[in-house]
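Researcher: Let's try something more involved. This one mixes different molecule types, so please make sure each is placed in the same coordinate frame as the others.
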Amino acid sequence: MSQTRRDVLTQLGAAGGASAVWLAMEALGLAAATPAHAERFALPAGSGRGREVVILGAGIGGLVAAYELRRAGYHVTVLEARDRIGGRVWTIRGGDRVEQMGRPLQRAAFAAGNYMNAGAARIPSSHRLILSYARRLGVPMEVMVNCNRGAGWDFGGRVIRERQAVNDMRGRIAELLAKAIDTKALDQEMPKGELETLRQFLAAYGALDEKGRYQPDGRSGFSEEPAGYAHAGVPAKASAVKDLLSSRGVVLPYLFEQIFDMQAPMLQPVGGMDGIARALYREVQPSVRLGRPVTALRRVGDRVRVQHGPDGQWIEADYCVCTLPLPLLSKLDADFSPAKKAAMQDVPYLPSVKVAFEAPRFWEQEDFLYGGVAWTDRLNENILYPSDRFHAPTGVLVAAYVAGWTNPDNPQHFAGLSHEERIRISRDSIEAMHPGRSKLLTNPITVGWGLTQWSEGVGAIGPDWGDARRGARYAELLKPEGPIFFAGEHLSYVGLWQEGAALSAHEALTLLASMSAQKGRGRI
Amino acid sequence: MSQTRRDVLTQLGAAGGASAVWLAMEALGLAAATPAHAERFALPAGSGRGREVVILGAGIGGLVAAYELRRAGYHVTVLEARDRIGGRVWTIRGGDRVEQMGRPLQRAAFAAGNYMNAGAARIPSSHRLILSYARRLGVPMEVMVNCNRGAGWDFGGRVIRERQAVNDMRGRIAELLAKAIDTKALDQEMPKGELETLRQFLAAYGALDEKGRYQPDGRSGFSEEPAGYAHAGVPAKASAVKDLLSSRGVVLPYLFEQIFDMQAPMLQPVGGMDGIARALYREVQPSVRLGRPVTALRRVGDRVRVQHGPDGQWIEADYCVCTLPLPLLSKLDADFSPAKKAAMQDVPYLPSVKVAFEAPRFWEQEDFLYGGVAWTDRLNENILYPSDRFHAPTGVLVAAYVAGWTNPDNPQHFAGLSHEERIRISRDSIEAMHPGRSKLLTNPITVGWGLTQWSEGVGAIGPDWGDARRGARYAELLKPEGPIFFAGEHLSYVGLWQEGAALSAHEALTLLASMSAQKGRGRI
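Model: All components are placed in one shared frame. Result:
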């Protein structure tokens, strides 16, 4: 069966090039790596036979492509515009320059060991592929705390603890549902026995008393905490639904920890999120040329030519793997087909912004917050407490992570503010969460991805990049153009994640290897 | 005001001894350390003035007492029955002997770096006091993953992932409540506007479609995971309530992560849970005598005499801090008052049991489970994946933690089984969770706390040790007897936790220091 399918592909490949191969593969349900075993991906050993591949971009997509192609015997050149690898995986450490287009230069002054993950900042434990690279390359991993029941929710001008919001909401929902069951309002919805079982369960699930009223048992916190000897705990009073939903922006925080890619446990490389990119770089370093922005891309017969660097050098290769994000690709001087050019125009990219400070770890010393996320309907949206090096004297607090979590208009608006304004807003939010402590915040750094050269955004968003099966525009962007194959988080259903970049690279390589095998056969 | 209160206490102390002081303090609302600032506890500097204190037991309660008394200038002797400190904080490493009363000797064969926390195994980030000791003493801490959405729930003979159970249940509850709201069954319960706000919220909270039906969006997992290129995700089918509640034992897992002391994030010392006990021990080591079980306790005037060790030595002191658990205390040859003796008899102690294996980390390599807890209605109840040293070649898997999580009768029953039976049951559960992998399990160790000498149980349970304010029996046990003060997790409302032991020690020391101050004044 699979032999037959491969035969079909071989014929198509010979006739129509890689594009036809890819379309046929998709039609046959064979499209590239099987996700369930993506972590076992490898191109056939020796199959590269020295063929030349030029890779555009040394982010995760480009680095993974380089790593796998080199393993299979291809001759690889990676062209990277920046003087660093990693792309949107950008860990800023003390001494680093932070450039933003049209903004004053910043220089990070963090102490050794402290860092800001300006871009990627978490790895779900369900992201098997990127974790497999971490494991294979010996990158030490630790837990990234993505949920902290002690963190504050500052909505409608009032700060409560996450444990109160989450558990009071759960209790109120259980209470109302129990009432509906008790009044037989749902007798038509479910068999009687099932409804009775559920009713009993709700008492435990929502901490309901024997009359079905929500009676907090400490899960939402205590007004007096239980302690030694005679100190019995006094549970906090239950909140009303209207107080729990006091602000439109508060919805996402109730969902956040349940989103597939945000579920516990989350992980991070020890020492900064760029750990995996750096480990890949160590493997492929001889192939990588930093400071070489791509300025033109041409097909020459069945090969490809790329102009790069300030000196306008040209490089020619059998194949190209292009991982440039769409805002850059759409501006590139390239002889893409009209359909491709049309598809890559005007795709909105998320201009999210972060602000970080260095400070003594008052959030640990005084509030016992070990990692986690605080939420607010202020403009800064998010506060992220560091998950590493607990009890170190200082740490880097991400005091704003504006990505539309609590209001979709925030990123654009916040990105437009001056650095000083962003920093002031972030300080004010810390002051609301930790009264008297904003004065301890030092060494601010802010990164807006819309103003970050060679990225111009964090990832593709909008109607064409949803979770549901995507339309013609997306399909067009996946297609190879002759010897040019495309990769990047925007060419995956795991968008805005390192995993998506790596998975899309595997897809591109599978097509590339397929075309390469065709050519090989042709030559024999 | 506080001066006046202190005067009252002073007079009472002079007249009635520490018991009266304590009762008066309680009446005045001054009972010992204020929980909110427990981490700043310190006896007045130099207040010990060389007075002698004998401490019974070198668990957390005894070690904290020794540390604080030494800091204040007391002369301290800690008598510990075992040849190790830590009590129910017991980290077993390769080469350790594991003795159980009436059972064959076990010896742990774990590789270096691997360990089993036979007793205490987690620290909530809300346990400020024990974390403050960790911080002060420089104990490195890391996250203990207490919740893993990828872990298995094996109930009614079927294994599903936690993410499916938790999110399908949430969706089904939201769906039913939305239906009840839509049919106006709850119009009398809440103002109309509030109900409308809640109804809108439920759509997001429970992933409801426009008709109010639960429509999984990936939060409960995927039948086909989203991946690169054309691989759109296909969310798993929604479970019915009856399948989500297929077994009586399944209720606790739905609550577990919401229990105050189990909420994210949890922590652990790097290298084993005994890290804090060991750090305290380093501070007080000259005061500690190991291998000295207490055999008799006598009051002599306002002082105390303690007989200890196989040679029956006596030690005399001004004060005693007794941290022995009740199963031991109730059997001790002591001249306690009849009321005290009556109160300490027959308090049930939880006989929980663990079984651990060493194995290659197949749970990480194949299932991407980084820490967390799996649940089952099998006898082993719990599987705990290690939260440390991710990607190390081997790890210790706790394959049974039987504490009544899924059935209150389990601990007693499982404790009565032979080691071989316990191990077989645990293996079978691993095989159900990880088909084909139980053959990798090696070096089993099992610890049942009911059969562990010098503990005879994990902690006080039953009606007298609930969360609500406790009755006369508990109050009696708190009271000092002349120069003897009592501490231990059982004398706290944070029972079965290191925090409770430490908090109760602070309470005992506050009383002791108060009596000591009285005596000092008497002498001047």
